Each structure stands twice: as C-alpha cells, then as structure tokens.
C-alpha cells in the first residue's frame, strides 16, 4: 500500500494511547502503548512495548 493511502486510511481509525499498570511499564519515554479500532468497529489492534527491564532494583 502506498504511503499516502496508508496515511489516509489511518485517519479513518480511532487511535488511543493507554497506560499499562504492570511491573514492565515504568511510564517513561521508553514505554509505548497504543490501540487502534478500525472504522467498522469490529477489529482492534494493540501495540505495547518497553525497553525497561522488569527488575527495577537491579541484580542482587
């Protein structure tokens, strides 16, 4: 799909940013959490990622 067509279609979707309350997410700039609902409201896609380690206190 050409880039401009993808941009046009993206505008038809409902985009939401959310926060995940788990040990994996520290709510800093390395955390990403998005959900998108398609225009027919029948499909949802979720992207959640972090580069933060789960162990906040470090080793030992």
Features:
single chain, alpha+beta, 3-stranded antiparallel sheet, 1 helix, 3 strands, 27% strand, elongated
Task: Describe the 3D structure.
It is a single chain. With 60 residues, the protein is an alpha+beta fold. It is 15% helix and 27% strand. It is built from 1 helix and 3 strands. It has a 3-stranded antiparallel β-sheet with strand order 1-2-3, with no helix packed on it. The longest helix is centred in the first third of the chain and has 9 residues, at 3-11. The protein is elongated and about 35 Å long. It starts with a helix and ends in an 11-residue tail after the last strand. The mean pLDDT is 82.
Strand and helix map with partners:
Layout: H1 3-11, E1 14-17, E2 32-37, E3 44-49
Antiparallel strand pairs: 1-2, 2-3
Order of H and E elements: HEEE
How is the largest sheet built, in terms of strand order?
Answer: 1-2-3
Q: What's the total count of β strands?
A: 3
State the separation between the terminal residues, measured CA to CA: 49 Å
Strand residue percentage: 25-35%
Shape: elongated
Largest sheet: 3 strands, antiparallel
Radius of gyration: 16 Å
| Backbone structural class | alpha+beta
Helix content: 10-25%
Point out poorly predicted stretches: none
Mean pLDDT: 82
How large is the count of helical segments? Answer: 1
């Amino acid at each position: 799909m050409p880039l401009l067509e993808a941009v046009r279609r993206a505008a038809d979707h409902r985009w939401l940013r959310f926060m995940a309350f788990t040990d994996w997410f520290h709510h800093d700039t390395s955390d990403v959490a998005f959900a998108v609902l398609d225009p027919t409201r029948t499909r949802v896609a979720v992207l959640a990622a972090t580069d933060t380690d789960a162990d906040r206190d470090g080793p030992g």
